[in-house]
Amino acid sequence: MLPFQEKHEKSLLGFALVVMLVLIYNKYFAQSPMPIVYQAVIAVAAYLLIALDVLVSAFKTLFKQRRMSEQFLMMIATFGAFGLCDLPEALAVMIFYKIGELFEEYASGRAHNDISSLVKLKPSFVRLVDENGNEQKVKPRQVKIGDVFKVLKGEVIAIDGNLCDESAAIDTSALTGESEPRLYTCGQSVPSGCINQGQVIHLRANTLSKNSSITRLLNLIEDAAASKSKPENLIRRFSVWYTPLVVGCAVLLALVPLFYSQAEYSDWIERALVFLVVSCPCALVLSVPLSFFGGMGAISRIGVIVKGSIHIETLSRLKAIAFDKTGTLTYGKFTVNKIHSVSLSEDELLSYAVSLEKNSTHPIALSIVEYGKQRKVKEYDVGSVIEKSGMGLESTINGHDVRIGRKEYISKYCGTFDYTEEDEESSYVYISLDNEFSGVIAIADTLKPSAGTMLNSLHSMGIKTVLISGDKRAVAEGISRKLGIKECYYEQTPQGKLDTLNSLKSKLSPVAFAGDGLNDAPVVSASDVGIAMGDIGSASAIEAADVVIMHGDLTAISRTVLLAKKTYKLAISNMYFVMLVKLLILLLGALGFANIWLAIFGDVGVLILAVCNAMRALKFK
């Protein structure tokens, strides 16, 4: 839109509307109408005031991009109406086209704002605090890792940072959808994009602004629009040759009198104009993407990010979902419940385990390290650590060859040894020194309460659920029985998980995989839809998955699938509705039963109805 039009948009549209009503009165009701020259002057003046940007855009697209746009359709339709002296009709076509544009802007803005509210606005400054307590306002990009900054009550946190104070109440609803404030304690990492609800807090930056949670999420939202669904891609490809085809058909209609002597030129030209007006693809081009965008907005309100409408479409057709256990169906916060040592004291065995496991980021390893800290056991210096993917770790400690990991990994070096695992729901970590079995550490995890509800909901939708776990058979099958998962794969290495998923995809498609987005990154990426249960601020979760659950409530998975089904159904119904109405009016117009006013309804009226229908997606629950 040109600057003067943007500034006086509503006034110009109002003026054109008044002129149109005057022209309608003169054409259809006035006994002594205004001279046609005067009518033409005010009609052209009003037309140019509101349509200049449309004309400029039509010519630019035609001559620079060598293609015919929807603006070109409107231009030649209105020029044709002027040529037939249908002045009110010519002006009406452009007025209602502009009204449709306004409605588009409003609807698109609503959908975009709904998604953007997920992360709120990024703060423009940070209150940097130096060693002497002096405060300085700087831009977020100027903050370095290790800098301390202050956040006042009610302010949005600009950069991820570790809490320097004893505790803080943080509103994470913008990222997680949780209504209750989350309590953080000293040393914990607080993500950006959240609001400080308590007193003044101090944070030590642990990332740069460009890598912060809020920046990544904002970039993710902006990039999501590039990932189009099949219906959207079809419409985009269709629109390239659609306009030339429509213009060609309109020209053929206008030329009918050349081949049929009894045909009236004015009658067939009007039919061609009806064809042009009703063929404007705005309703189709807008309503389908808007349905998907509205669905993404509805999903964002439950603390879930979907990376593009193509994943909405895939989720709507989902046949199966495979789950990892640790950190997905369970909290992934293990506790040591038993230590069995063969030759060493429990503390000595734990010391070797802690010294080796501190080199791993696996949740089980972290729990052993944490338990060792609680018991204040000694930590030894460790040589170079060799990691056997999915099996265990080995290194030299105090002159001993120490290994820790799965039973089959340890027995490979120690031979067979006698130990009965007592609890089927516990995980067991085996330890050997110098190829001699030295002991076992038993570790338990806790199921998330929302797991059962989520799985029941998926089953009610006819979606098959599968467990693919690295745990031993007893643990994996015990969890499966508890949750009603019929198909269970256990003792899976990362490569094994990948092979199992590919096997599932060959039988059922599409298949989703839900994991923690870190250890399961390869299989998450390989699935038709990767779902990451990532803690807020987890870069790996955001990058690896197609869908990111920003909190721990598993029911968000089933709710996302349900919303995806509703969204896809709405988008397809919108597409068929628009096409059916337009085809009907096209047929009536070609046969001479529809005038230009019905064509205007077929264009703008259908656009407004389709957009209103698409906006329903924003209210999906």
From TrEMBL:
<dbReference type="GO" id="GO:0016887">
    <property type="term" value="F:ATP hydrolysis activity"/>
</dbReference>
<feature type="domain" description="P-type ATPase A">
    <location>
        <begin position="121"/>
        <end position="222"/>
    </location>
</feature>
<keyword id="KW-0812">Transmembrane</keyword>
<dbReference type="GO" id="GO:0015086">
    <property type="term" value="F:cadmium ion transmembrane transporter activity"/>
</dbReference>
<dbReference type="InterPro" id="IPR023214">
    <property type="entry name" value="HAD_sf"/>
</dbReference>
<dbReference type="InterPro" id="IPR018303">
    <property type="entry name" value="ATPase_P-typ_P_site"/>
</dbReference>
<dbReference type="InterPro" id="IPR044492">
    <property type="entry name" value="P_typ_ATPase_HD_dom"/>
</dbReference>
<keyword id="KW-0472">Membrane</keyword>
<dbReference type="InterPro" id="IPR036412">
    <property type="entry name" value="HAD-like_sf"/>
</dbReference>
<dbReference type="GO" id="GO:0005886">
    <property type="term" value="C:plasma membrane"/>
</dbReference>
<comment type="similarity">
    <text>Belongs to the cation transport ATPase (P-type) (TC 3.A.3) family. Type IB subfamily.</text>
</comment>
<keyword id="KW-0479">Metal-binding</keyword>
<keyword id="KW-1278">Translocase</keyword>
<feature type="transmembrane region" description="Helical">
    <location>
        <begin position="238"/>
        <end position="260"/>
    </location>
</feature>
<dbReference type="InterPro" id="IPR001757">
    <property type="entry name" value="P_typ_ATPase"/>
</dbReference>
<feature type="transmembrane region" description="Helical">
    <location>
        <begin position="596"/>
        <end position="615"/>
    </location>
</feature>
<feature type="transmembrane region" description="Helical">
    <location>
        <begin position="36"/>
        <end position="59"/>
    </location>
</feature>
<dbReference type="GO" id="GO:0016463">
    <property type="term" value="F:P-type zinc transporter activity"/>
</dbReference>
<keyword id="KW-1003">Cell membrane</keyword>
<dbReference type="Pfam" id="PF00702">
    <property type="entry name" value="Hydrolase"/>
</dbReference>
<feature type="transmembrane region" description="Helical">
    <location>
        <begin position="272"/>
        <end position="293"/>
    </location>
</feature>
<dbReference type="InterPro" id="IPR051014">
    <property type="entry name" value="Cation_Transport_ATPase_IB"/>
</dbReference>
<dbReference type="InterPro" id="IPR027256">
    <property type="entry name" value="P-typ_ATPase_IB"/>
</dbReference>
<dbReference type="InterPro" id="IPR023299">
    <property type="entry name" value="ATPase_P-typ_cyto_dom_N"/>
</dbReference>
<dbReference type="InterPro" id="IPR023298">
    <property type="entry name" value="ATPase_P-typ_TM_dom_sf"/>
</dbReference>
<keyword id="KW-0547">Nucleotide-binding</keyword>
<dbReference type="Pfam" id="PF00122">
    <property type="entry name" value="E1-E2_ATPase"/>
</dbReference>
<protein>
    <recommendedName>
        <fullName>P-type Zn(2+) transporter</fullName>
        <ecNumber>7.2.2.12</ecNumber>
    </recommendedName>
</protein>
<feature type="transmembrane region" description="Helical">
    <location>
        <begin position="568"/>
        <end position="590"/>
    </location>
</feature>
<keyword id="KW-1133">Transmembrane helix</keyword>
<dbReference type="InterPro" id="IPR059000">
    <property type="entry name" value="ATPase_P-type_domA"/>
</dbReference>
<dbReference type="GO" id="GO:0046872">
    <property type="term" value="F:metal ion binding"/>
</dbReference>
<dbReference type="InterPro" id="IPR008250">
    <property type="entry name" value="ATPase_P-typ_transduc_dom_A_sf"/>
</dbReference>
<keyword id="KW-0067">ATP-binding</keyword>
<feature type="transmembrane region" description="Helical">
    <location>
        <begin position="12"/>
        <end position="30"/>
    </location>
</feature>
<dbReference type="GO" id="GO:0005524">
    <property type="term" value="F:ATP binding"/>
</dbReference>
